[in-house]
């Protein structure tokens, strides 16, 4: 299952680099290096999410599989998790392609004429990229057959919930037109729930 996961992950990187990046030179520049006016809390949370998912969840899942720490996870559950995981990854790519202000760090991009985006997945929830990240963090451990990796995966998902709340608060306070958008699109992550 790890090979299928890896192929899906690499395919997502390829799609992003071919479909999103060439049309968004400014998006690439926005992502590196971290802008000075980025929210200080998000510099911490963004890095924490990356470390939890890439440098803790994945190695724990690998060691778990190698040393047999977790009981065998049902193949059907792994396949369902894989589909949800890749769906979450696809949602991140769709959000990125739909939002020219999509950034790895929270800031109001006044230098780029930051405005509210309400197309693509933003028609359904206010933070579709975070929905994708949440799904990715929660299903990666099960996809890879590791119960132990659910601990850092769950922590990473918690970081996403916190980032969502803080970013939404920032946008409501600082981005013109966002309050009206929030009245139209009531849900941050899950339609009808939050």
Question: Roughly how much helix do the residues carry, as a percent range?
Answer: 55-70%
Count the domains.
1
How many helices does DSSP assign? 7
What structural class is derived from the secondary structure elements?
mainly alpha
Radius of gyration computed on alpha carbons: 17 Å
Termini gap: 32 Å
Number of strands: 0
Q: What does the overall shape look like?
A: elongated
Mean pLDDT: 90
Spans of at least 5 consecutive residues whose pLDDT stays below 50 are none
Q: Biggest sheet, open or closed, and with what strands and sense?
A: none
As for the CATH topology, it is Four Helix Bundle (Hemerythrin (Met), subunit A)
The CATH architecture name reads Up-down Bundle
Order of helices and strands: HHHHHHH
Give the class-level CATH name: Mainly Alpha
Strand content: under 5%
Description of the structure:
The protein is mostly helical. The protein has one domain (2-24, 40-184): Four Helix Bundle (Hemerythrin (Met), subunit A), CATH 1.20.120.1630. It is 65% helix and 0% strand. The protein has seven helices and no strands. The protein has helices spanning 2-20, 25-31, 40-67, 75-98, 128-143, 150-174, 178-184. Helix 1 (2-20) runs parallel beside helix 4 (75-98). The radius of gyration is 17 Å and the shape is elongated. It starts with a helix and ends in a 10-residue tail after the last helix. The mean pLDDT is 90.
């Amino acid at each position: 299952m790890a090979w299928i996961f890896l192929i899906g992950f690499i395919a997502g990187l390829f799609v992003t680099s071919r479909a999103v990046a060439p049309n968004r030179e400014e998006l690439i520049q926005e992502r590196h290096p971290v802008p000075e006016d980025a929210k200080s809390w998000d510099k911490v949370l963004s890095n924490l999410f990356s470390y939890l998912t890439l440098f803790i969840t994945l190695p724990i899942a690998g060691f778990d599989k190698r040393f047999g720490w977790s009981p065998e996870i049902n193949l059907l559950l792994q396949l369902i998790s894989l589909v949800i995981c890749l769906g979450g990854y696809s949602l991140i790519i769709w959000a990125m392609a739909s939002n020219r202000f999509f950034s790895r760090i929270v800031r109001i991009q006044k230098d780029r004429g930051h405005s509210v985006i309400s197309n693509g997945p933003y028609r359904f929830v206010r933070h579709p990229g975070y929905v994708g990240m949440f799904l990715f963090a929660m299903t990666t451990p099960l996809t890879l057959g590791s119960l132990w990796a659910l601990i850092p995966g769950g922590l990473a998902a918690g970081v996403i919930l916190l980032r969502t709340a803080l970013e939404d608060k920032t946008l409501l306070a600082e981005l013109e037109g966002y309050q009206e958008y929030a009245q139209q699109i009531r849900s941050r992550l899950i339609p009808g729930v939050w």
